Amino acid sequence: MAQLAVSESAWSEARLLGRPSIELRDVSKYFGDVQAVNGISLDVRQGEFLTLLGPSGCGKTTTLRMIGGFELPSSGEILIEGEAMGDRPPYRRPVNTVFQNYALFPHMTVAQNVSYGLEMAGVPKVERQKRVQDALAMVRLPHVERRKPAELSGGQQQRVALARALVNRPAVLLLDEPLGALDLKLRKAMQLELKQLNREVGATFVYVTHDQEEALTMSDRIAVMNEGRILQLGTPGEIYERPRTRFVADFIGQTNFLEVDVDGWDGITVDVDLRGSGRLRARAPEGIQPQGRMTLAVRPEKISLLGDLPGSEVAGSNGLTGRLDEIVYVGTHTQYLIRLPGGQVLTVYRQNRAVGESEHTAGESLSVVFNPQSAALLAD
Amino acid sequence: MSAIRAGTLGSETVAPAALPQSAPARTRRGGPWLGIASALVYLFLYLPLFVVVLYSFSATKVNAWPIKGYTLDWYRELLVDRDIQESIRLSVIIGLVAASIAVVLGTLTAFALDRFNFPGKPAIRFFVVMPIVLPGIVTGVAMLSFFSMLGWQLSKWTIIIAHGTFCITLILNNVVARLGQLPRSLDEASADLGAPPGRTFWRVTFPLIRPAILAGAILAFTLSFDEVVVTFFLTGREKTLPLLIWGRLRQGISPEINAAATIIVAVSLAGVLLSNRLSKQAAIGG
Amino acid sequence: MATATAVPTLDTRGEARLNPSPFALLVTPMAWISVFYLVPLGLLLLHAFWSVDYLTIDRTPTLDNLRTVAGNPLYPTVLLRTFLIAAAVTLTDVVLAFPIAFFIAKRATRHRELLLMLVVFPLWSSYLVRAFAWKTILGTNGILNSFLLASGIVSEPVSAFLYSKTGMYITYCQVWLPFMILPLYTILDRLPNSLLEAASDLGGNAWQTFRRVILPLSMPGLLAGSLSVFSLTMGDYITPSLIGGSAGTELIGGIVADQFGMANNWPLGAALILPVLAIISVFLLLANKAGALGRGEAG
Questions:
Q1: Does the beta-carbon distance from C141 to B145 stay under 8 Å?
Q2: Minimal CA–CA distance to C117: which of A153, B181, B269?
């Protein structure tokens, strides 16, 4: 049986060399005529928690399955720990997977489930038992060894699936939307636990989800995908604060999109004209020259009501004035929908620091400000 | 033979436990008459069975009504009737071997149908089911002419071959249904954990389909045990129990026939109940 | 899993994923079925065009048998008789099946599975047993006559039940009944209650609802059941032998069985099967068209 686990020395060596844990080189996948994955290249670092994030059908799960060996790429190469995987089946890859529906073997007990991989690797019985115990303790589920999966709750089953994968000490752990079936509180708790496990165990985690909040919470880096391509790869902060395309800005969190015409550029900030509504300054886009018509993207929480900021902070900001159309109370914050003279609608989030209702009413004129550095310029 | 037909033409599967379940919805339609009419029809359905079982305990030799006394004599006679014992032995052997053949062939086909997409799937299911949809006499005489052409003598083997053939669909339906219930991710999880396909089959798939196979096998045995329409044409000098009864019936009714028939009913009941229980276990526990 | 492939497909590189090839799996079963069923079937049909020469079969193709079948008035008569009895049984069984099927589909909740098993079980307990039980029931001293005498409906035992077409008809009605109940149940089960409620809400009484709503929608189930009844009746030789047995009660199944038995004229027997197969095929096509046959497993 091929080695599923990677030895300690191999790991340290890899870290020293800085060799990526997983390399995808121009990987594509066709199902018949449909292209699910379109030339993806990606390096996953040793021990990092990388999330593939995107809407349904974007190719994230297919990509994960190709790493795991459940699908073979139509073209391109996949390397794990420096070795080309070629057409190796899953049972010969140093990878373990946590499936979306857990895929626990219903006719086996929890202990038998968890020790399955060890059995396949020929680990002797005594050691198996110890490692199973340790794994179950690690996922904080120590007393369920004799039970069958059907007798466990969803959250418990999920942990067993985790234990079953981690007990083999894989170099890479793949997780396919494992928290989907859990209720909100449990999900949030499990997100933190998974993050901790990633640190404890040291294995590379590749996580697939469509929930952007989950991705932001857990990941070291996020690869935002759509239509089979990676649109942007970066840390949660980078993805959130500096989206490179409209899709990324739109998919993660909320964004205002304003169509503007570029007036001038001094290398750092760009002057733009918001038709009919005034002139603004925005952050220069990376890698492309600002010109013609572009889209200015600014997040609602980055915009403040004029009255809320001290004068010193207002200087140098962008300012816009419009008519307050609607006020929506959302608990932690209040949404202000402001209609600008040029017809555009701006959404502003204002944190509900004060007690009591907003002092503004619909219909009145309202001015808002935001820092040019918060405004990104996107080509599409 | 006929029971599989019911499974093909209109019900979802064959095994009694696997008959279609939908969310039951009560209506008040029909009033009490519906219930009464239904009860009468049930009586009609079971009349012959009651009669046979009843008469097996009747003291008179003639099957007249009303019954004048009760006895176990006929069962006692059965016990010493050599021919009956031989025929029971033969029926059991044929049933076991035929069921085994059907299990192997049916399971192989079930896997092919469940795990792969290829044109011709409906054709395969049709061929497997044909022995059931066409009248038994067609199957019987077709095989008779075939064996005759080959020069094979009629014997228990010719019967076994025939029974094995039309029982395939019983196993096939059960196993395909069961395989359909198993999520594909179980196979993938097993591979992911290091098991090559052979070990995945033995450790994961087979234990989970075993109840379905058994349920089908028991039904196959039951069917084979009862069967007469096809068997009649393919029998050599040894006779299965139903054929023995058929032969004696042609010569007039002798009372221990009722007892023998009751035995057949009892075996069928046991088979159907057992198979039912296994199917249910599979659905829940698996 | 989130992706489309429920079944591992052959990848573009030609490598099968987690399973061996389907053809490896199918080779044995298909070979068996071809050799032991399809070939014999073909062979049987060939026999129709051969003839018998004392004890051996003469393989020169000839249409003699077909002429015999068409020419001799006995055979069309018997075919017609069989067909008519099958038709009568079908109609009767439809009437008998409706109450039970409707009851189980629409009225039974907790005991549904048990009730269905009770319908199915007689099928599993040997046709032969049930057929010969009718011999007991229908005889001059049998249960039916005793019942009729005791309740004063007749003054002396009726001998016409046994060894008659009537007897066969009654027997067939009972033994084939589950084949009508089951497909009818399946179809009624799928009938949404809302349809029935709408019908009565719009002012129909029970009979009208039945005639205009239930009956038409039950057609596929009834067709499936009829297919079974016809197929079984046209191939049966057991009941004619046990319950028939006098002149004018021969059915086609019995005649075919004789050709392969005592009469030893296999080619004629095969030729007689042809019209039977033709009739059944017509029914199959009709039933298939009406969607009566099972859709089979997905895939």
A1: no
A2: B269
- For residue C226, the chain B residue with the least C-alpha distance is B9
Find how far residue A342's CA is from the centre of its chain.
35
CB contact under 8 A, C141 and B20: no
CB contact under 8 A, A65 and C15: no
Position C65, amino acid: N
Q: State how far the Cα of A313 lies from the Cα of B183, in Å rounded to an integer.
A: 59
Q: Compute how many other C-beta atoms are within 10 angstroms of the C-beta atom of residue B31.
A: 9
DSSP H or E stretch at residue C58: strand C56-58
Q: How buried is C201 (Cβ within 10 angstroms: 0-12 exposed, 13-18 middle, 19+ buried)?
A: exposed
Instruction: Report the distance separating Cα C20 and Cα B201, nearest Å.
Output: 11
> How many angstroms separate the CA atoms of A367 and C155, rounded?
109
pLDDT band at C148 (very low <50, low <70, confident <90, very high): confident
Which DSSP letter does residue A21 get? S
CA distance A132 to A164: 8
Q: Which of C102, C124, C296 sits opposite B268 (nearest CB)?
A: C124
Q: What pLDDT does residue A283 have?
A: 87
- Residue A345's nearest CA partner among A263, A249, A277 is A277
pLDDT, mean of residues B131-149: 91
Top-confidence range, A261-270, B96-105, C286-295:
B96-105
CB C49 within 8 A of CB C63: yes
Residues A267-321: tens digit of each pLDDT: 788 888 888 888 888 888 877 888 888 889 999 999 998 878 777 777 778 888 8
Nearest to B194 among A101, A105, A121 (CB): A121
> Tens of pLDDT along C65-97?
787 877 888 888 899 999 999 999 999 999 999
pTM of the model: 0.80
d(CA B127, CA C37): 9
User: Which residue has better confidence, B140 or C136?
Assistant: B140
Residue B80 neighbours by CB under 8 Å, 6+ apart: none
State the best of B141, B163, B228, B258 to mutate against chain C, taking most chain C CBs within 10 Å: B141
Are A175 and A194 within 8 A, CB to CB? yes
Q: What average pLDDT score do residues C162-169 get?
A: 88
Do residues C30 and B199 make contact, with C-beta atoms less than 8 angstroms apart? no
Residue A230 pLDDT level (bands cut at 50, 70, 90): very high
The pLDDT of residue B27 is 52
- DSSP secondary structure string for all residues of B21-70: --------TTHHHHHHHHHHHHHHHHHHHHHHHHHTTBSSSS--SS---B
Cα A288 to its chain centre, rounded Å, is 25
Q: Which of B9, B16, B121 sits opposite C299 (nearest CB)?
A: B121
Quick one: closest CA in A to B183, which residue?
Answer: A103
Which whole number is the average pLDDT over C188-200?
Answer: 85
Q: Where are the beta strands (DSSP E) in A32-80?
A: 34-44, 49-53, 75-80
The rounded mean pLDDT for chain A is 89
Q: What is the pLDDT of residue B19?
A: 41
Question: Taking the alpha carbons of C259, C265, C266, C268 in that order, is the dihedral positive or negative?
Answer: negative
Residue pointed to by tokens 């007749």: C154
- What's the distance, Cα to Cα, between the start and end of chain A in Å? 51
Q: Find where tokens 């990606």 sit.
A: A42
Cβ-proximal residues to A356 (8 Å cutoff; 6+ apart), any chain: none
pLDDT digits (tens, 9 = 90+) for B178-189: 999 899 899 999
At residue C297, does pLDDT exceed 60? no
